[in-house]
Amino acid sequence: MRVLLDFASFTGPVMRNSLLEVTPVIPGSLSRLPELAANLFFSWHRPTRALFEDLDPELWKQTNGNPRLVLRCVNQETLERCARDELYLARYHLALETLEAYLGLGAPTAEAPLVAYFCAEYGFHESFPIYSGGLGVLAGDYCKAASDERANFVAVGLLYEQGYFTQTVDNDGVQQAEYRERDPRDLPVEPVRNTAGEWLKVAVRITGREVVARLWKAQVGRVPVYLLDTNCAENIPSDRDITHRLYGGDESTRVRQEMILGIGGLRALRALGVAPAVWHLNEGHAAFLILELLREHLAQGLPFNAALEAVAADCVFTTHTPVAAGHDAFGLELIVAHFGDFVRELGVPVERVLELARSPSAPGLFNMTRLALSGTRHVNGVSRIHGTVSARLCADQWPEVRPEDNPVGFVTNGVHVPTFLHQTWMDFFDRELGREWRERLRDPEFWSALERVPDERYWVTAQEVKARMLASVRERLQREYERKGLSPAQLRHVTRFLDPQRPGVLTLGFARRFATYKRATLLLRDRARLARLVSNPERPVLLLFAGKAHPADEPGKYVLREIRQLMMSQEFMGRIIFLEDYDLQLARSLVSGVDVWLNNPIAPLEASGTSGIKAAINGRLNLSILDGWWAEGWMQDNGWGIPPANVLDPERRDALEAELILGTLEEEVLPLYYAREENESACPGAWVKRSKRAMMTVIPAFNMRRVLFDYTRGLYQPAVTQYRRLAASGFSGARTLADWKTRARQAWSKVSLRQLSEVARDLPRGERLRLRVAAGLNGLTPADVRVEFVARRLLPEADLAPPALSSYGQPPRAGVWHATFSATDEQDSDGAVIYALDVEPQECGQFRTEIRIYPWHELLSHPYELGLMKWL
User: What is the pLDDT of residues 771-830, one digit of tens each?
Assistant: First the structure.
C-alpha cells in the first residue's frame, strides 16, 4: 500500500511540505515477484505480465502496465490474498520456472564474437518509454532476438528522465504533448556498481569541463542493456539536463547527448571490462563512438590513417531513413566548441576530424551519417529498396563508383514475433502446430502446415483476437471521451461499430508516426467516395487511426487535426476513429485485430515500415504502397500491393495512388471479406486462405531471428575477420593498408584507361570475347589495380532484384557479370600497361557493357571502398 501524507495544509509552528511513502511488504511466498518485474522478459511473456495485471487490473492500467510501479502501489491486503491463492501461486511458480529455464538454456560459445550495439532509443515495453518510434522498437526487438538466440551481445543507450511525450488531443483536434518525469525506481533498471559497491560512473570532457554519467543496467532476457544518464550531483544543472528528455533541447543538447552515448557508452563498457569484437552503430546518433575508438588506437601509437582503418574494420553502421530530418548535422563551430579538448587529446589538427563528417554538398556542417560512413566499412539499409536509396544518398562518399556497386548493402527488417503475436494465436499454434513453432520461426516448410488447418477453426481464432481488440479500443475511447465530457448518447454513437460481440465489420487500421511523407490522409482526398464506402449498410467499414506528430512538426499536427475533425463530422462519426496516445500497447492491439493494415508512404521514403509485418504475423492483410519491406513481402496472394505512381507531380501522384487504394477496397477487399454464404459470422473461405498465406509467408521471412542471422553472417563475421587481419602483428595490416591508400589517392588523378579493341556488337554463344586496353598507372603497379569488363543485361530494374532479404552472402545479381583483365608484359609507347581479356560469356541476351579500372588491395574490406574508379 502506497500512502502519501501531505502536511502542507496543517497549521502550526512547523511549515513545510513533506511526503511519506508506506510501501507494501511482499509476502515470503511471493518474494521473487520483484525479480520477475526486473527482467524485461515480461515484455514478451504474457503470463508473467498477467501476474502483475491480476494483482489489481485498474492499477495496472493506471501505471501503463508497469510491474515495478504496481508492486510499489498495490494494497498490502491484495498481496496477502494472492499469497493464499493456490491458483495464483501456481502461476507465479510457473512464471519463475519459465524464466529460469529460458535463462538457463546456455551462454554463447566462447568463440562467438561479442557485439556491442549502440542506439539512442529502445522500445521494449510501453511502461519503459525511452523510445519515440520505429527506430527504438526495432532496437528493442533486436535485443530480444539476440536474447532468444543466445547471442554474445551487449547494448548501450541513454536513460531519459522524460521519455517520448504522452499525447492528448483536444476537441478541436489540437495535439497536446505532455512530458512526464520517470522515477528510476519504477523502471526495470538497476544501478551498476563496482567491486567496492560504488555507483559506476564515467566522464566525458565537453565544452571544457568533465561531464559525469552514471550507469544503469536493464536486463532483456539474457542481454544486458547499459544506459547512461547525467543527472548526477557532480554536474552543473545544464549538464544534469543532458539526458533529461529523449531528442529534447537545442542542438547543443543533441550534440552532448550523442557524445555521452558514443564516447561515454564506450568508456562505460571499458569500465565494466567488456571487450566487444564488433561495434554496431544503429543510426548516426552513436557515431561519436568512432572518435573515441580512434583516440584509443592513437594512444597505442598508430598513425591517424592506420588508426582509422583499424577502427572502421570492425564497425557496422545501419542507416534507417532516407528522410533528411533523420540525419543529424551540426554547425562546425558548435562541434569545435564541444570537442576542442577531445581533439587536443587526439593530437591531430581539428580540420582532420571535421573532414570525417563533412559532405561535399554541405561543407559547413558536421554530418553524423557522414562520420559513420567514414568510420565504418560495413554499411546497410533496412530493406532492398532502402538499401538502393541509401546507396544513392551516400554516393558522394564513393564519388566515382556507381551507387549500385558502392559498399551500402541491405538487411531487411523483421519483428520479434513473441512480442507482437497475440497470445490467442500462440495458443492456437501450440494446439495446431506443436510447441516447437517457437524454434521453427525461420522454416518456411514448417509454416506451410497452416494450409492444413481447417478454415473454420482459423476464422474463429482470428475473430476472437479481433473482438479483444475492439473491446480494448472501445474501453480506451470511453475513458478518453468521459474525460472530455461527451454525453453517453454521443459515446454510444461513436462506438457503435466497436462491438466485440459482432466483430464482422471490416476494420482498417492506420497507426504510425504522423510524418507528412506517411500520408495519413491519402484516403481522405475523395471524401464523398470514402463516405459511400464506409457507410454502405450491406458492407460497412470502420477505419481506425492512431499516431503522434513530433511537437515541432506543424504539418504533421495539421494532418492529425484534419483526421480528428473529420471523425467528429456527421457523415464519418463512428466510422472513422482516431485513438490518442499511440504507444506499444495500442500498437500490439491494433496490429493483431484489424482486418486490413494500411501504409501509404511516398515511395521510396519508407525505409522499412515494420508495423505491416506485425499485422501480417497475426494473419492481417496489408493494403499498402509497394515500398520498404512490403515490396519484398507481397506475394500477390497474401495481401494487396499498390505500385507507386510513376509521375513527378506530387498532387497527381497522390490522386493516382488514392484512386488505386480506394478502387482496390471497393473491387477486391470488400467483396472478398463479405463473401459469406450464411450470415455475418460465417467463414469467408477466400479471405481465410489469403490470411493464412500472410502468416505462412511473412513469419519465416520477416522475423527478427532471421535478421540477426543475416547481420551475423553478412556484417559481424566479416567485421571480426577484417579487424583481425588489420590488427595482426602490431597492426601491420592497418599501417600497410593506410599507406597504400595514400599512395593510390595521390596517383589516381593521372591514371588513365584507353581501349585498344572494340567490343563485338554480336557474339554467337560459345565464341570467346577478346579485348585489349592500355592502362597508364602513374607509378602504381598492376598489383595495385584491377581492370574489369562489366556487362549489365538490359532488363527492367525489378528483374535484377536479388531474391533474398539481405544483400550479403548472395550470388551476384542476375543479369550482371564481371570478367577481370590480366596484365600482360607489354607496354605501349607511353609506358601504359597492356591488359587483355579472353572469356566466354555464360549468359545470352542484350547487355550494356563497360570497362573500368579501380585501385585494389587484398586488405580492403570492400573492393570499391576508396570510391575511385575510371570508366571506358
Answer: 999 999 999 999 999 999 998 888 655 444 555 777 676 655 667 888 999 999 999 988
Asked if domains 417-435+445-702 and 747-871 share a fold, the reply is no
Query: Per the structure block, which three cell numbers stand in for 796?
Result: 527492367
Give me the phi and psi of 305, to 5 degrees please: -65, -40
654: which residues sit within 8 A by CB, 6+ positions away? 519, 522, 525
pLDDT at 11: 44
Q: Are 396 and 361 in contact (CB under 8 A)?
A: yes
What is 112-276's CATH superfamily? Glycogen Phosphorylase B; (3.40.50.2000)
| Torsion over CA: 387, 393, 399, 400 (sign) | positive
H-only helix segments in 241-367: 251-259, 265-272, 288-299, 304-313, 332-346, 350-355
Which among 293, 300, 306 has a CA at the least distance from the CA of 738?
Answer: 306
- 606-623: per-residue pLDDT in tens? 999 999 999 999 999 999
DSSP state of 198: P
The fold adopted by the segment(s) 417-435+445-702 is Rossmann fold (3.40.50)
CA–CA distances in Å: residue 362 to residues 445, 695, 867: 50, 45, 19
Length of the chain: 872
What pLDDT shows up at residue 110? 60
Lowest average pLDDT, out of 33-37, 329-333, 550-554, goes to 550-554
Task: Tell me what percent of the chain is helix, strand and coil, each rounded to the nearest 5.
Answer: 45, 20, 35
Q: First-to-last CA distance in the chain?
A: 79
Residue 769 identity:
L
Task: State whether the Cα torsion 362-365-370-374 is positive or negative.
Answer: positive
Pick the CATH number of 747-871 from 1.10.10, 1.20.1440, 2.60.40, 1.20.1630: 2.60.40
